[in-house]
Write the structure tokens for this entry.
Amino acid sequence: MTKQFKSIFALLVLISILIPSASFAEDYIVKEPPKSLDKLYPPISKEPKWVNQMHKVSGTLNGVLVNVKENDWENAEKSAGLFAEAYEETSKLVPEWKDYFDNDAAKKFAETVKTRDAGKVWKAMGSVGKTCGKCHKENNVAVWTKYSWPSAHKIKVSDPVSEEELKYGKYMWKITGSFNAAMVNFKDGQYDRALKGAKNLKSRIQGLKSACSKCHVDDSVKNFFVGPNVTKALDSLQTELTKEKPNPGVFWKSIGIIGKQSCKRCHLTHRSYAIIQEVWENHDH
């Protein structure tokens, strides 16, 4: 798990604790984040400054919550002062998002902590929490999509079958074509053509590992989509189709493993983000 992913995961945990009431019952629009946020993320910034700033805000707020619960008012007051400062700093980083912030509410929250009245503190925190919750609800998915998921549309893959260099999307269509060729020809009893499709499918799915390497350096991640079970199913598919009378049960079991453990896993993990990015890119052009 990378350092940046750990940071994002920790922030998610905090959000889920502090903003449990956020709901998405109404229509939800994922708008591309403002360009001014670009300077707070790599490659323009060496560090994910926005994420780091969020941790500064959440860390100081947590300091208040924990210390109030433990009746450590001295440290609660210290954390509250630091929280108000961090909150105001954050409000100035992205001009387009300034209206999400209520610096007066943050300062009032810090002052309320000085009363050492837990009931008043929780009430004051609610006003600040609403501002955090609104911004998170409306922007988290968009920010994750843009800055945590590299665009697949910029990836190129060498097709082991045609030996062409293809854009990632076109390569995926080649995989789909091979998959369909194996299934359709098997149904039609054209086992020689089904075998050709199965061979191409194996080559292309195995070739996905090179595409995964564009983003993932950990083999365990790549094996999650093209792991031992999928490789075994690809081999079984090919072996079965070399027989004079292939066993339908073996064929369709192998197809199911490939479809569920490779194709579906990858699509559920990446496809939604890729669709959003594609919409943004088409809109820009």
Remarks:
- The longest strand covers residues 156-158.
- DSSP finds ten helices and two strands in the chain.
- Residues 3-21+32-147 form one domain.
- The radius of gyration is 26 Å.
